Amino acid sequence: MGDLDRVPDGVDPAVPSSARVYDYLLGGKDNYAVDRAIAERLLSVAPDTRSVARANRAFLARAVRFLCEQGITQFIDLGTGIPTSPSVHEVARETHPEARVVYVDNDPLVKVHNDALLATDDRVITLRADIRRPDEIVEHPDVRALIDFDKPVGVLLVTVLHFVSDEEGAYQIVAGLRDKIVSGSYVVLSHSSSDSDPEVLTQLKASTAGSPAQSTFRSHDEILGFFEGLEIESPGLVPVQRWRPTMDSITSRLVVEGAVARKA
């Protein structure tokens, strides 16, 4: 697999990107050698990591469909990553053809691809921004023009918060977003768990230390802490493969837990 033909402004191909590592695990081509090296080291100790990445993506789709069933028609996808079909607006429009989506990521390469592949009409926008500054996202004029915060919103935080440390305000990010949305809104969240196989955790931490892909693994109870002030829907916080599965779930050495919660 060759590297990308052109390096966008702001991208250092020698520095790994969590979005590009994830892209490689999902079978994409928008990644560099440094990203593939991290993914391959992880796959060497946890060959099921690719299936976990796909399971997490499937969790996102099932969660969006669930929100649509509850009447949600507008979404903010934080930490979008490189586009993978079906994307959030594609899933949402299966139920609500007029669904509106804001895609947010701080990776310049992601923004290039999102602009080209996702922002295909005036009800979908992409924004390069950092979730560590959620007020800048919520108050951005383009976001305000598309999303009506007087009506329920689906906020999606899928495998993004483990890239934010406690010191960087991970819990405050979710609390701040929760306070910006009205009753009847939902938060969808998934997060890598410290209950993963110790060898996998050691390899992943060693591979990404000091890079933008460095992760903070949290326990089940610590992940539950993100849902303070929200009502978690059944079946609760579980491995993403077990959240309302459409087929038999699998176990994996890398554990990613997910849940959907409602603001009462």
Describe this structure in words.
Strands 1, 2, 3, 4, 5, 6, 7 and 8 form an eight-stranded mixed β-sheet that branches. Helix 8 links the parallel strand 4 and strand 5. Helix 2 runs antiparallel to helix 9. By secondary structure, this protein is an alpha/beta fold. It has a single domain, classed as Rossmann fold, CATH 3.40.50.150. The protein is globular, with a radius of gyration of 17 Å.
Features:
15% strand; 8 strands; 10 helices; alpha/beta; single chain; Rossmann fold
Main beta-sheet annotation? 8 strands, mixed
List the total number of helices: 10
Supply the CATH architecture.
3-Layer(aba) Sandwich
Kindly provide the name of the CATH class: Alpha Beta
Task: Evaluate the radius of gyration.
Answer: 17 Å
DSSP strand count: 8
Structural class: alpha/beta
CATH topology: Rossmann fold
Instruction: Give the overall form.
Output: globular
SSE layout:
Layout: H1 18-25, H2 33-45, H3 49-69, E1 74-78, H4 88-95, E2 100-105, H5 108-117, E3 124-128, H6 134-138, H7 141-146, E4 154-158, H8 170-180, E5 186-192, H9 198-208, H10 220-224, E6 231-232, E7 238-239, E8 256-262
Parallel strand pairs: 1-2, 1-4, 2-3, 4-5
Antiparallel strand pairs: 5-8, 6-8, 7-8
Helix pairs in contact: 1-2, 2-9, 3-4
